[in-house]
Amino acid sequence: MLVLQVILIVLLVAAAVAALVLQAQRESTRDARDRTLAAAEAFAHSPGMIEALSDRNPTHVLQPLAEAARKDARLDYIVVWNTAGIRYTHPDPKKIGKHIVGPYEETLDAARANRPFIRSFPTVTGVSMTSSVPVTRPDGKLVGLVSAGITMKRVNTMVAEQLPVVLGSGAGALLLASGSSVLASRRLRRQTHGLGAAEITRMYDHHNAVLHAVREGVVIVRGDGRLLLANDEARRLLELPPDVEGRTVTDLGLAPGIAQLLLSGREATDRVCPAGDRLLAVNVRPTDREGGPPGSVTTLRDTTELHALADRAEETRQRLQLLYNAGVRIGTTLDVVRTAEELAEVAVPGFADFVTVELLDPVLRGEEPVGPSSEMRRTAFCGIREDPPFYPVGELVRFVPAAPTALGMASGRPALEADLRAAPGWKAQDPERTQRILDYGVRSLITVPLQARGVVLGAVEFWRADQSELFGEEDLSFAEELAARAAVCIDNARRYTREHTMAVTLQRSLLPGGMPEQNALEVAYQYLPARAGVGGDWFDIIPLPGTRVALVIGDVVGHGLHAAATMGRLRTAVHNFSALDLAPDDLLVRLDELVARIDQDRTTESTGEGATGATCLYAIYDPVSGRCTMARAGHPGPAIVHPDGAVEFPDVPAGLPLGLGGLPFEAVELQLAEGSQVALFTDGLVEDRHRDIDVGLELLGRALAGHPDRSMDNTCQAVLDALVPDDPSDDIALLMARTRMLASTQVTTWDVPADPAAVASIRSRVARQLADWGLEETAFTTELILSELVTNAIRYGSEPITVRLLYDRTVICEVSDGSSTSPYMRSAKTTDEGGRGLFLVAQFAQRWGTRYTPNGKVIWAEQTLDDGAAGTHGTVESLLEQWQDPLL
């Protein structure tokens, strides 16, 4: 066998030498063509060629490689040039960057057709053979050309040089034939790990089975965009036809996103792409990282179910966020209606398209509901549209027993109507209205009773329309949780409403219920309680004897029931002190002592409350003289609007707030023209945490100025519009009064000598004056009263003695003298000759009393004009029969 191998080798060598000699001329051309074409194609398709051509300096990368390849291939030149004909490489560096010579356009046309261009041409050194090969990107775009050339003489020389090599090879082959067979066999076994052909076949079959059995798609794409391999899972996921190998990716009908990834050549990690009704996680890796062939390998995983889980997790996160928002947004105020509105606003559109809330009427009033009821009032609504045919807000809704809301109220559990078109109980509520709701597009309902602390307060309905999914069982627990949180806030608001209503009711019951009858002033007032709670602001209009009127305004420090109760005590005290007809400064002194005693009592009781603290302004207006006397204890001073519209803030000594004691109060007297306006107010009107009091007074002056003929009600409203913020932090009381004066014909004054005989003349004058006023029917009673008062002044008083008769709503008799001794009424015995005068005055007059002046006192008696000659306790004749006063 070995000899046979040697003979065979000798024959082969001889045949090769003979063939080389005989065919040298003929084969030289073909050899030159093949060598240049092979070198050009090898260099054009070498790794990194496209990247090098895209580099800023291709010559820097390609020139060393071209020269090395030229020398290895024993060629005359390898030239790389771009589509513009500019050289990037050349054996002669001076020609780099210059334009090539020869058939430039023919070469480019062949390159654009993706075929080589081969030609031979004579040179000074002989005939030369050149092959030009295009360099294209994976998408087929031409980016450059590679030309390799060699002279025919050089080829022939190389053939001649190969003869010794061939002969030597033949001799060596004889020696190495046997050894090479042994070495090849050993190397093959080492590379196959000792496996034989059968084992290698089984391994290939196993790997192929694994490739097609895995639940992950594998796709291999060549550099030219053709599919090289796709396993069974990839075919299933991408729905590929059977004959996909060798076809371009763009011809497979893949989804645009996946096709783009397969052709891009870029790396991708877990890129989610839709493929029909699936979501695929795509990973792409290039295959030419370590010298491998150009192309990419792609793996595909079906993540549709994982994405569905992610969607459910996102939905759960949104629900938790909605519950958090509900905790933040519901219950921002202690208002029942606003809290119900916040519940509706929170759930739209995150959970429902429409939300309606009904509450029991006692809840709206702040009362404790007796029990669940199917009769509730629609309190709040919110929706994605404003015109659904639901019951309007404010309407009392009576739910039929079969309605879901009524069933939920009775059972205390939420009720689900997933499809309202198949809900007979809901339709029975109001067939006409429910049909309009269905026609509007509403399709699904969840109703949940609002329960807090074991008390049912109302119900909330969540509605979904056509564009949303129908409610399901998983939505019930969320709706119940949302309603439970809102119910606690509504119950808190209800309790606050109850307490606030009680306090406001108490406070308003302590304030004036209406205007007293008097002609001295045109009066209007406004009172605004603070939203934070009731306070201690108060005001009053108190008619005084002699047609005078007292105006009072005050403020107790703090809020709550304690402040309101203290205000009521002070207001009552002011009424009582006014009945004594005290001057403003004297009244404030007594009020100050009362507040001090209240604080002492509170300290003794150890209530834990601080000092009461209160301010007050007290003014008395006399329509006869036009004088207004006022004093204040720590309270803001008044504003005076003169008849011409000018505003003045008179300087009234402030004094200390009530309860501090130790310093007297000082009164001032102002002369007011008829038609002047007096504005009394509390500090809440002109001062708050966002505005200084000076700014508030300036705004008040602007609101009052320039409108002398405006009604008092309109003036009050104008002042509130200009000064009151949307959310006042303190109570506000405003009292406006326009002055009037009695005409001179309504007042008559006489001086009386200290002589009992003068009583008769006074009675005559009184009769004439009453006749002039058209009050003859009251003449006898008035003469009787005035006779008694004048007689007492003459007998027990001192000069000067003056009689004043006033005609207003009543007839008022006033007798003044220089003595400060006040008479008192006593019960005379039947045997007593005197002591019955003041008793008769008290019987015939509506009221009577004494007031002190700097120079003495005034005893007055007031008669109504509808009593005629009769007194309040019997006829004149019956009284005179019981008591006969000799002075009468």
UniProtKB/TrEMBL annotation:
| Pfam families for this protein | GAF, HATPase_c_2, sCache_3_2, SpoIIE
Q: Which membrane topology term applies here? A: Multi-pass membrane protein
- Could you tell me where this protein is found in the cell? Cell membrane
Q: Which part of the chain is the PPM-type phosphatase domain?
A: 521-739
Principal localization reads membrane
- Span of domain GAF: 335-500
User: Which sequence ranges are marked TM in the entry?
Assistant: none
Could you tell me which InterPro entries the record lists for this protein?
Bact_Sigma-Reg, GAF, GAF-like_dom_sf, HATPase_C_sf, HATPase_dom, PAS-like_dom_sf, PPM-type-like_dom_sf, PPM-type_phosphatase-like_dom
Name the domain of life this protein comes from.
Answer: Bacteria
Entry annotated with the keyword Transferase:
yes
Q: Which PANTHER family match?
A: STAGE II SPORULATION PROTEIN E, STAGE II SPORULATION PROTEIN E-RELATED
Protein name, as recorded: SpoIIE family protein phosphatase
